[in-house]
Amino acid sequence: MLDPFDEPDDTDATPQLGNPEHDLPKTPSVDVDESDADPEVKETFWRSVFLTNVAIFALTVGPMVAYFRGWWTVGAAAAVLGAIMLFRVYQHYRAFERHQDDERNA
To answer: Where are the compositionally biased (Acidic residues) regions (predicted)?
Structure first.
């Protein structure tokens, strides 16, 4: 009879899994030269990335500080700051979009 607690002698699972470096498909590499991009587009992009990251941080940490620490004023202020920053990202994006449309139509 087979013992359910009897383990096989070979405990190395590596041969069963294969070599991931060899078996996975190769991802093509792309060389990107940022100097080709429009400076206004780069500035808008990086400003939006920074403000969005700060806003998401404030919107997530603010409620946690309020709930876990009981610092309701600090948590509410952080959440409001995050919401305002997200709104500013939206406004900045819309202004950029209007500016691009004006340049295309001119």
So the answer is: 1-12
